Amino acid sequence: MSEKIFTKEELSKFNGKDGNPAYIAIKGIVYDISKVLVWKNGIHHDKTAGNDFTQEFPHKAEWLDRLPIVGRLQ
């Protein structure tokens, strides 16, 4: 199975709203955060899922190891 490549427009549809999964991109990798409780409904603090958070990801990189990878950001 080939890896899914997301455009920024495609990624924006995975915002955790209306039954959609919640995905975020960090350093070109797209992660599924749908089951992360602090991202309920795709929102965590003032951030919304479906975006690239490479420049503003406040956690240690090890946190990402626990998340499923669903593809890459174009």
How would you portray this structure in words?
With 74 residues, this protein is mainly beta. It has one helix and six strands, in the order βαβββββ. It is globular and about 30 Å long. The two termini are 18 Å apart. The longest helix has 5 residues. It has a single domain, classed as Roll (Flavocytochrome B2, Chain A, domain 1). The mean pLDDT is 92. The strands form two sheets. It has a four-stranded mixed beta sheet with strand order 1-6-3-2.
Summarize the structure.
The protein has one helix at residues 8-12, and strands at residues 5-6, 23-26, 29-32, 43-44, 47-48, 69-73.
Please render the helix and strand layout as text:
Layout: E1 5-6, H1 8-12, E2 23-26, E3 29-32, E4 43-44, E5 47-48, E6 69-73
Parallel strand pairs: 1-6
Antiparallel strand pairs: 2-3, 3-6, 4-5
Domain Cytochrome b5 heme-binding: 6-74
Protein name: Cytochrome b5
Pfam families: Cyt-b5 (PF00173)
